[in-house]
Structures are given as structure tokens and as C-alpha cells.
Batch of 4 targets.
Target 1
Amino acid sequence: MINIVSKGVDKLRQYGKLVMFSHTIFSLSFAVVSMVLASKGIPDIKTVFFILVCFLGARTGANAINRVIDAEIDARNPRTKGRQIPRGEVKKGEVVAFTAVCFLIMLYGAYRLNIICLLLSPVALVLLTGYSYTKRFTFLCHFILGVTCACAPVGAWLAVRGSLSLLPLFLGAANTLWVAGFDIIYGCQDYDFDRENGLHSVAVQFGVKNALRIAALLHTVTLICLIAAGILAPELGIVYFVGIAFIAALFVTEYRMVSPENLVNVNIASYSVNQLVSIVFLVFGLADVFL
């Protein structure tokens, strides 16, 4: 019995690593802030619950299927060959079944929210599955990932309101450009491997130096979109804009950590710093609404 429990816990741990559960915060913050702004407070418990169901189902399924689709590439890349599928710790068939369950959960959540969410859910599924293939044929893969993540704030708004306005579109644009920017930074470390294996990225297309410049430009426009969202939302005020100032400082910090000649800190700059960005956005956004 103890061995069974131990194996079960180990399997859960492997799946947690597989789907990078710690990275959930990246778009969750945008989804939660969008939900709260759409409802001008906390919506009913049913809506909150099924928004979270959709988000977690979509995000977990997308990361799982990404590992399946990229398994062969990961096995060739020295940086990623230690991931669960290349090492044989998790089987592809298991992950495909797990992904199917996650996406079914997302579809059920969309059904329970409203007809708009249900009708748009196939579009989300195409993005969630398809973005993993895009680096095989376009350097715009980072932006497609960003658009996929932006389904979170836009979808949360639709779940509450059933219609769109400029505010969720600015939040979605900020989410898109922010994710694309730090994914470009992250992709710089695979520049040599991607070139040798015919994979596409902004770094491969324009060089690492220009890739970092493009990422910085995207993060600058992200700040502009966040400021625009703050102006459009009457619930947001000085606390929110103080949070945006902190986010700007974090962006400056991440670009001081990396350069074309020094990519040692890419993981910290692209992931760790931006996890803080997400937390700051969530905390300051909610504080301004509820305080």
C-alpha cells in the first residue's frame, strides 16, 4: 500500500514538472483581474469556479500536449533532453490521455459559463494545440503563444459579460506582448540548436542582439497597453499605476541580466522575473478594486 501511494505521489510530481504547474501564474493574474473588472467586484461563485476550471484545464492540457509534440526535439536538445518524456519517466500515450481529459474539462467549464464561451472554445483548442507546431515554420511562434495566453483575460471577461469592449482587448494585447517578449528572451538560449535543426524564432530570424531589442520593445508596448487599461477601467487608480511602475522596474531589471554575450541568466530573466511581474499585476490590480 505504501509503495502504491509513493508511486502515485511520484507520478503526480512528474506531471507537475511536465506541465510546469509553477508557471500557472503567468496568465492567471490577467484572467483574475479581467474577471474582477468585468463584474466590478467578485462575480457569483459559480462563475468564478468555472472560469478557474476552464483556465486550469486549458493551461494544463496545452503544456502537456506541447511536451508530446516536442518530444523528439526535446530529446535532441541538450538543454531539454532531461524532460520527462525523453527520459521515459512518462509515456506519450499517458500524456495524450491526460491532455484529452484536461480539454474536456475546459469544454465542460465553457458550457457551464455561457453560449459565447462554448462557441469560442474550439478556437481556443486550436490555439492551445497548434502553437506547439509553429516554431517549425515561423518566427512568429512567440506571438502565437502570446495570443494563446491572451485567451485567459478575454475569456474571463466574456464569461462574466458575454460581450467584449476595449478594456479586455487592451488586457489581452498586454498579455500577448508580455508573453511574446519573455518567450523571445527564453528562446535566445536555443539560438544555435534552433539554427542547426531548422527551427524558427525571433533570435534565429534577426540574431540574438536584435531579438533582445524586439523583446524590450514589446515590453514597452505592454506597459502602454496596461496604462490604457488603467485609464479605461474606472475601478483602477493610483494603486494600480504604482504597480505598473513596479512592473516597469522589473522589465528594466530583466534586461540588465541578459545580453548577447551573456545568456547565463536567461531562465531567471524570462521566467523568475516575469513571475514577479504577474504577481505584482495581480496584487496591485485587485488592491485597487477592493481597497
Target 2
Amino acid sequence: MPRPIAARRLHDILESVETAKSVSVEELADRFGVSRETIRRDLKALAAQGRLDIVHGGALKRGVGEPPYAERAMENAAGKAAIGRAAAAMVEPGMVVLLDSGSTTHEIAAALAKAPPSDVTVIATSLRDALTLTRAGVKVTVLGGEVDPDDEATVGLDVIAALPRYRVDLAFVGIGGVTPDGDVTVFSRVAAETRAVMLDCAARGFYVADSSKFGRAGVARIAPKRAPEALVVDAAPPARMQTGLAAHGVACIVADAL
């Protein structure tokens, strides 16, 4: 049985997750005056009871995290395909393009594969995207790292370390959600850092997200040193969200659904 102090801490952690929808290990360790390892053990215990979901750097309210790739690929497939076509249309001959992993960015790879511009190089983390493009005759570089079994893409510190070595013309970065106030978020701190570095190493960067991501909030904000040019979407976000995005220097490009 948990000791009284530990049991009280577990109760307070659950209350925090319920209220804020997400918590970080660092914040909880500071709040309770215990080590990060103790907090990680607490979160694992609560996750084993089915009371929250663990993500890199913290935890989310049960069911708030990113759904499996197969589910995401089916959600608003037509909208994601429209985004893919709009993003692929920006690619010109001779460019170096950086593609994040995910169901929306995969549609960019699929659109590029149908009519690849000449002498284009794609830098990818997704094994799916790499195969799709390689089979279409596109030159592909895959960034090394640990492979996420669901996304089938490389993740982690090795990916982050490799990114600044490349010269990139265009970067297309997926997101977990956009809050009503226009904060662009993902579901782990590592994912947020990876996407920030992706945007910072490109001459032109873009977020890509279909309208199902409107109003969703992950545990971590994506915070590049300079804002991407735009968020490419399949439908216009609500006015308040657009205002918030604009305040961060991010415009909105609505893809043609035809």
C-alpha cells in the first residue's frame, strides 16, 4: 500500500491532470519537492491503473494524447489529402525539403510522389514517406534515431542533433493541436523540440494540420526561434484562433479541397 504522503501526492497529481489536462515531470518535482525519478514512478503507477497516459516529459489526462497512426490516417482523410497537394505545389525543382512524420505529412509525400519535381531531395524521419518517395524516384535522406513503432519514424536526440547539418529550403511540420488562443502544441517535449529545430533549419517553414486539430492542446508548445510562414489547413480556423496565430507571426493558408 502507498505511504500516506505518497498516496496524497498521487491524489494531487491526478487532480492536476484532470484540471490542466497535462502535467510535466519537472513541474511536479518542483511542486512536491521530490526527485524527477520519484515523479516518474508515480506517473507509471497511475498509468498502470489506467488513470492517465504517459508522454515524454510528463503525462496527459486519459484519452487526451495522440491517437494511433492508423486512426489519425482515417480522420478527415480528404482534408489531409488537400493539404498534401497544397504543400507539394510549393516544391520547386532542385529544392531540399524536410518532412516531419505523421498522417498529414504523409499526404505531402504521396502528392510529391505522383509528380516529383526534378532534382528534389527530401529529408525524412518517416520510413513510410521514405519508401513512398524512393519508389517514385525521389532522392531521400532518412535521419537516424530510435524508431517509433506506431509512427514508423525516427525520433529522439539523434534526430535533433542531425538536423542543423542540413541546408533546407522548405520544412513541413505536423502538430498535435492548436489551442483556441492559437498556441501550436504537440504531445511531448521531445516532439516540440524536434519540430522547433526542423523549422529553424529551413529557409521557409510551415505547420500542416487538418481542421480536426483545432481546439486540441498537447502538453508542449512548439517554440521555434523564428515563426514559420503559415499553417496550411483544409478549412479556415475560428477567428479567435486565427488572431492568436497571427500574434505569433503565423498566417493561415487554406488548401483547395478539390
Target 3
Amino acid sequence: MQADFFAKKRRNSLGFLLILSVITFGAIVITEYNVVKGFESLPRAVTWALGNFYPTQESLSRLPAILKSLMETLLVSIAATTIGAIFALFFAVMGSNTTRVNAFFGSISRGIATVFRNIDVAAWAMILLFSFGQSSLTGYFALFFGSFGFLTRAFVETIDEASSGSVEALRATGASYFTIISQSVIPSSVPQMISWILFMIETNIRSATLIGLLTGSGIGFTFNLYYKSLNYDIASLVVVTIIIAILFIESISNYVRRVIL
């Protein structure tokens, strides 16, 4: 029986790899992508980057302005994520199979979250540009809507996994709905929810760079400004500060996860 199980697993893996290979080959043919030419261009790209795309002594004079734009991006990302998490918690409680009031409200909550989750933040930014123009507010709402949709789905799964047993036990004792939420659902789900929020903050900081290109704000706009003006040394300094900021936030996030989980 065990030999048959592993044989079946190997066949499934080989079948998946075969299907993936066929899809990849089909995509190359349809898009007329030249694989050889693509790999041949890599040495030229590396040579250009080493010769042009690096910080210089002169570019360091722009560091204060770059850090100011980076701080704006970080604050917008954190604010959008935390406010989105508050709304996501409410919709997750309404949409979870464990805590929903009824099936109708549960379906509505899940449906709203699905719509917001499946629209990319870049698409949200383009949509919101018509209402708010190029501003930090546009980037904030784009990140907020994306965070809300993703975190609602994550919180729903967290509630269903972490608190189903304790909810049933409290219901058997006759506890009220709000008592169940405050005494069982939230305490048992908070550690995992915090982990999801930290992950979303990391993701939003990366996304905010792209959003800044579209909304004309934050570190993304700063990079775009210097890159298009051919100031590659300053643009590379912007990239370095973004990388350092992301690594710093990720290290803090990983530490917090180790403490709470």
C-alpha cells in the first residue's frame, strides 16, 4: 500500500511537471519570446548596471530628501494596513462559518472581500486617480482596499481554524454572541492575525513603490523622477534605501512573529 502511494505521488508530480512544461512552451510560442536572446542580454544588462547604476558621493547629498519620501511611503503603508485590518476583522467575523450571524450576511461579507482582493493595487490606483488625482491619498486608498480584501480572507480562515472548538463549547453553555466573540474568537485568533498584518505591511511597502509611480507620491515618484532624468546614481541610491527599509521591516516582523506565535 505504501509503495502504491509513493508511486501515485510520483506519477502526479511528473504529470504536473509535464503540464507546466507544455504551458511554458506554449506561452513562449504565443508571445514569440526568444529565450536565447533573453539570456544573451543578461551580461550586457549587468555590465550597464555596474557602469551606471550605483550611488556616488554626489548622490549622497540627496539622501535627506530620499529618506523623507521613504518615510512617507512607510507611514502610508502602515496606516493603510492597520485601518484595513480593523475593517477586515469586522467583515471576517461576519463572513466566517464559525461566527457569522446568518448565511446571507456571511455570503455578502465574503463576496465584498473577494471583489476587493481580486483587484490589484495598481488597478485600484488607476481607478482612484480619476477621483483623487496624483496624491498620497490615492496611494493610501489603493493600499487600503487591497489590504482589506486580503486580510478579510486571511482572518476568515484564521477564525475558522483557531476558534471553532471553543466557540461550540461556549455556545453549549449559553454564552451570548458578543461574549463568544470577545472571550473566544478574538483571543484565540489575535496572534495569527498579527502575523498576517505584519506580512501585509511588508507587502504594502513593496507595492507602495509601484503605486508611487502612478500616483506621483512617495519613494516611487522619487525613483521615477531621478531615473527618467537619467540621474542613475541617485536612482540607485533610492533603490538601496528601499532594500534596506524592507529588510529592516522584515527583520522586525520576523522577530515579532517568533515572540507571539
Target 4
Amino acid sequence: MRSNPFVYLSFCLAILFGCNSGDQKKASKDGVDSTQIFSPDKVREVTGTGKVEPENGIVALAATSAGVVVKQFKSRGDSVRKGEPILQLDQVLEQSRFEQSTSQLATQRSEIEMAREAAREAEVTYRYNQEQLATARNLLQKNAETQQNVDDLEQTLKKSEIELTNRQVAIRQAQQRLREIQKQGQVSKEEKNLKMLRAPEVGVILDLFPTVGSAIKQYETYADFAAKGPVLVRAEVDELFANKIKTGQKAVIRLVGSTDTLATGTVQFVSPYLKKKSLFQEQASDLEDRRVREIRVTIDQSDRLLLNTKVECIISL
């Protein structure tokens, strides 16, 4: 006699539902509701993963000019003041241009003085011709001078006037040339100064890449720099708990996987939007689309925290 398959299927389903009902009754009896174990509403602490950073971030210093390192003033871990030299690049060409501009300045000043002297002579000649013409005209009125001589003196005066104008123009041209040379000298000086790589402000050199004899390209990063000031933790909180984070909440800083407290702090900033993971992204082929909310936690005492250390922020809600 063959059994009915529908009867067999109904029997299996009855057993399955009976077991589930028994488990739920047992859970209710023990006072635990499995549907509430992972409910975000019951969470009292939220963990964010982040790293320790300076308040203004780690700055990658870039060379504004290309060249070969000829001198190193600072090393990794050294503190620097604003404007203090870190590296010096070769500046032979820039130094030659600066010296050339300096030499041209002296020459051009001499030319200006010569042009002024020539203008003074032209002015004396012009004044003399004016007097000669005035005298000749007075004599002509007394019939003691000829009209031809007066006409000749008028032409001579016009020529001396043109000569005086030309000399004055020559002075202005020489002065303009002097200003151009001065600007060229300023440019040469700035180019020379660009060969000295200096600290942008007070801080610490975290890393220094080139060594003496190595070449640096223009705009190439040559050092990692942290400005003087407080440090903080920039962390990311999963979108599941993003709405629970608010400024002013207290946080405990720990190493990832550790229960020892390194420092305590306060949530200072909460990003107004969700974004993709950026601090500690997994493999690029990861298909999981989880977004995070960025936060910044100020540290009460940062003596035990090293920059760029990966940490966990345990935030109390």
C-alpha cells in the first residue's frame, strides 16, 4: 500500500512548527525575546572605529620648486618653528640670476645719472637760445638786427627744445628700465627663496622622505607635518546607530580589540550626512554597501595616544 505524499508533507510541517512554538515558549519562559536582542533601541553604547589625528589633520608638505637636496636641517620627529628651514635645494642658477640682477641695477642707475646730466646740459642750451632770441628780437625792433638772423635763432631754439624733450624722455625710459630690473631681481630672490623648504607653522615633522643628494619634483610631497595643537579621534559609526550620536556625548578610547582605556573624550563634531567607509575600507571587491557617519572626538589627555593609531571609540548614549 503506497503512502500519500501530501499526508507525509503535512506531518513534517506540523513537527517543524511545533518545535518553533516550543522554542518561543521556552524563550518567553526564560524572559528573553530573541526578536529584541539586536534591536538598536536597546543599545546603550555605540562603537566607532577611527584613528588618532591632529586637530588640523596631517599635512603633506609639497615642494614649490624642483631641485636636488643639498642640505638637511631637520629629521623625523623634530619640532619646528614657523619659517624654520627643513631642506635646502640647489640654488646655483637662481643665485646667478640674482647676482646678475644686482649688477644690472648698478649699471642702470649709472645710466639714469648720465641721462639726467645730458638733460641738464640740454636745458642750459635751451635757456641760452631763448635769451639769444629775445635779444635779437629787441635789436630787430631798433633796426640793429636782421630778420634772417632772428629766423635762424628761432630754428635753433626749436631744435634745442626738441633735444631737451628727448633727454627728458630718455630719463623716464631709464627709470622704467630700472623698475623692470628691480622686479626681475625680486623674482630672482623669490626663486632663490623657494629653494629653501620651510615649516609652514609651529609643529612636528612626522616623516621626511628625501635625503641629501636626492631629487625632488615640483609639487612633490617631501614631508608629513602635524601642526602644534590638540589631537582628536576621527571615527566612523555604522549607519544603523548613526542617529543616536550627538555632540557632547562621552567616549572611551581603546585600542582595537583591547579592553584597556587609553583616554577619554567628548564627541565634538557629528557629520550631517552618511558616506561610504573611508578610514578603514575593506577590499575594493567587497560588495557590501554599508554607509557610515563621521564623528570627531576631542581627547581629555592624549599622552598615551600616538598619531595615526587605529582605535575604538566607545560612546555612551
